[in-house]
Amino acid sequence: MKKYAVITGASSGIGAEFAKILAQEGYSLILAARRQERLECLKKRLKTECEIVTADLGKKEDCYRLFQTVKDKPVEIWINNAGFGNFGTFKTSSLQKELDMLNVNVRALHILTKLALGKMVKQNSGYILNVASCAGLMPAGPYMAAYYASKSYVTSLTRAIAEELRSEKSPVYAGCLCPGPVNTEFNDVANVEFALPGISAASCARYGYEQMKRRKTVIVPKCSVRLAMTLGRFLPQELYIRIAARQQKKKKYGSRKKAGCKLP
Ligand SMILES: NC(=O)c1ccc[n+]([C@@H]2O[C@H](COP(=O)([O-])OP(=O)(O)OC[C@H]3O[C@@H](n4cnc5c(N)ncnc54)[C@H](OP(=O)(O)O)[C@@H]3O)[C@@H](O)[C@H]2O)c1
Q1: Does the beta carbon of 34 lie inside 6 Å of ligand 1?
Q2: Span from the CA of 186 to the centroid of ligand 1 (angstroms)
Q3: Following DSSP, what letter does each residue of 193-260 receive, concatenated?
Q4: What digits encode the pLDDT tens for the residues 239-252?
Q5: Is 148 marked active-site?
Q6: Domain 4-253 belongs to what architecture?
Q7: Residues 18, 1: contact at Cβ < 8 Å?
Q8: How far is the CA of 43 from the centre of ligand 1 (A)?
Q9: Which of 14, 167, 210, 239 is least enclosed, having the fewest CB within 10 Å?
């Protein structure tokens, strides 16, 4: 029997790399994002059955439409990866961009997690992997305040669901991937340049996939980021936030390079 996987935000970065891994693993794919031509480019490169759903997940109706296209298919893996950030002080950052971001990072992920979970509980199998960020494991992120808050929502929601599933001895898995910097188009969209070197999107997705299969609830790629997250737990929160602010200030406003239509 065919096994299906859904990936949101598959048109670039981590999502496109998840698509390559799951294609190699023999999954039939449902790929969602706004940029149809990017998804078509990716589809041509994958040696598996691929369905493209062009969707703006900032819109509720597009979230429901994505779910409708797969509701009768046995979806084994659902990766809520679509998301973006925004750099700047809270007082100067665009309210509209932040609301758009919350609609994708929080509302769409919430809707799709609920719908996917209901389906997987009925199937009695399946994996839901929510792409959060190490930002979601920290108490706050000055200069990217709304982004950090949105990713805290993702980690909190997912960990709670994972515990509910564990206590019911459900075979369904829910976990969150919490990377530090990853070299993708994220910076261009968030209008920022990282202060620290990023890992490749391919290694991030590979690590996420392997740890998901090991049913780890909170997945943090890269040793140094894992160490920083562990040490952070022992710091007073106000101090931690000050250190995070200092680190964030080292980031620079990006040049807002427009990413062309290169293959993901
Ligand atoms: N890169 C990092 O350093 C980093 C670190 C931690 C966590 N993350 C998280 O990783 C996830 C993937 O980001 P990435 O780094 O791979 O960045 P990316 O290359 O910019 O990819 C973001 C993906 O999200 C999709 N997306 C954005 N808004 C959307 C919308 N309204 N509707 C549908 N799809 C939308 C984009 O597709 P379209 O533009 O075609 O719609 C794209 O496929 C995000 O959730 C991000 O927060 C990234």
Answers
A1: yes
A2: 6
A3: E-SSPPEEHHHHHHHHHHHHHTT-SEE--SHHHHHHHHHHTTS-HHHHHHHHHHHHHHSEE---PPP-
A4: 999 999 988 888 76
A5: no
A6: 3-Layer(aba) Sandwich (3.40)
A7: no
A8: 18
A9: 167
